[in-house]
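Attaching the record inline, Q. Sequence:
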Amino acid sequence: MKQNYKKNQQINLYPMRQPSQVMKLERLGSFHQTRLSFTRQLINELKSNKTQFEISKWDIDNNGFGNAVIKTIFNNSIFSLVVFCHSINDEERSDRVIAEKWDMTFSLFKGIPSNLELDRMSKNLKIQELGRHLSKQLTLSRANKSVRIFKKVLDALSNGKQPSKSDVNNIGYLVRTTAVYGNGKFGIGDFSYDTSKSVLNKPFQAEMLTVYLIRYFSIELINFTAQKKGGKKSVKLSNKISRHLGVGNATGLGMAPFLINHQELIHKWINTRETAISRVLSIKSINKNTQKQILNYIQQAYKYTLQWNVDDPIQANRIKNLNLDLKNIINCNKLLNLLNKNYPLKSLNDYFKNKICIETEEILHSIFIEPFPDIIDDLTNQMGSVEKKISSCRL
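Structure, as predicted:
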């Protein structure tokens, strides 16, 4: 039986953590995704609005080069991912942000582009920052095929075989971007012109939709080229393996200046997360069904983190400690007793707080937030801001 939790029942909110505790690099770097994360917000919107995807143009040749348009009908609004696949030499392929050629270039377009608009984008998307772009373009992006896995997957599928699951898990993507620009850069559309009406009015939703559609396209492309290469003996990438694929990202160069220049946004994002944690720690009781959900999420987190492999020895050790902590929590004989107490999540949090590392603390917070959309999801409406330009002062 589902237990309903209402915001108006949250009378005595558990105090939020102090900024001096939260705003430390070690802790910020230990945050894990929650249902408030930008990607999760998009996925929830796509599901709740029963979003439809349709390949409205596919002018790709047997080698995987050409042009495609993927139409998205999203809450009565139409957006299109415009794609151009280019033939480049291996030595021209670079993941550096200063590269001048890429395997693929993209733009999220408002509506469906006309032939004239497609023709203009064909000339300008391939040169990205140097191009002259249209105001209907909401994002600008480019990507390269993964040199480690794209050909392996293509060869396997064209020969009637599924690719190695371990290879897919170890790399996690067929293509990786080197930029996803938005909000008026290089002449593309400024999000603010119809923010109040757009289904993409929350932070980073246009960029996240772009990346989601790039992922969609990468799977369609590998299936298409495998069929052209292998003919009748070829197979499509299985849904089970496809679920393990995302999109890689080769640069985060813009994050440092973004953090400095958008302090109000950073405050809102962290404050929203801390408010969510406060709300769930203030829940007085949870039923058996929700208890099972919490226990299941801890199990899932443990199994998932066992798959994490990194080369950095410091982070590898942090992951090892996280695995050990989660295993100890699962095996703790007091776990069910804690969840049956008044303020069960606070009780569980307080019991383990001094026994676990920061990584585990923060993954527990993500787990606590997950089962409670009724009291959490409204917070996504508080994550944007209307930033005002402040006049500089003369000294």
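Residues 205-230 form the longest helix (26 residues). The mean pLDDT is 91.

More tomorrow.
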